[in-house]
Amino acid sequence: MSQTNELEIMERIALDLGGVEESLASSFNTGAEDFNALIRPLSAAGGKRLRAQLCLLIANAGTSVERQRIRIAEAVEMLHLATLIHDDVLDQAEIRRGEDTIHMHKGNKVAILSGDYLFAKAFQIVSEMPNMKYLQIFSHIITCLVEGEFMQMEDVYRIDQGIERYMTKTQKKTADFMEGCMELGGLLGGWSESEIVELKKYGHALGMAFQITDDIMDYRETTETTGKPVGNDLREGLLTYPLLSIVNDDNKDRLLADIKALNNGGNEQDIIEYVIAQGGIDNTLAVADKYCKDALAALEAIRDFPGKEFLVMAVENLADRKV
């Protein structure tokens, strides 16, 4: 694939993202000024827009219609933003993308209604598409997200939940969304059914690697690099792959007691050092590496296309993040 083609598709994606931002700004101009004032700064902060980028890249590499791909990417971002707002309520988080969270400003009711509006608006956009398949994909994504959130709520401080259940939650909360974005892009771009199967495999593997790599950050990074206190997941009773991978009959009671003590003066660093010493980080790196390889294998099974190198780089960036 020539460098020119790669640059051209990235320029088109940048233009499309500009269109997405304009559409989002227009959508957040409702008759409820409280809602507008709360949502606009959170949306404008943007984040990486990774899900929209994945969708737009695959759509642009095919034969998509500009207006349709921008609208679907807008709906993807609305859906993602809605889940973040609801997550913040469930976790009682205080900061999101450098801004005070909505429930901190206006309370849980306003935050929940704001997320509900975004869900409804996203589905309204998708319902205008010429193919019901788009709506089916969105419905699947949101169903998986909610199921994953229910599972996470059930598993707070559940030391014996096991790796298999944790991987199912990770799939539902992260991987299924990225897989859906790849499928949406393939549908928009007129990709063949066999190619869409491989694109979905890539999205699934990238999403799993993304979340599992993120699990490591709570054990390795500092507050300055992650934007949240180190050990934050532990304090909230959210037990992730590094810890779950080293739980056994001999240490589970002690670990659970130490984790529950974190909100009463316990030291998260002691737990972190124990998990690392027992091989928790090494275990997590190994499974993340497996998913990175799965993502690259899926790409290998697809013909070369403009933007393919970006997808390879997304995996390589995750691999670098693990180091």
From TrEMBL:
It holds the Pfam family polyprenyl_synt. Its cofactor is Mg(2+). Keywords: Magnesium, Metal-binding, Transferase. The keyword Transferase applies. CDD domains: Trans_IPPS_HT. PROSITE patterns: POLYPRENYL_SYNTHASE_1, POLYPRENYL_SYNTHASE_2. Belongs to the FPP/GGPP synthase family. This is Polyprenyl synthetase.
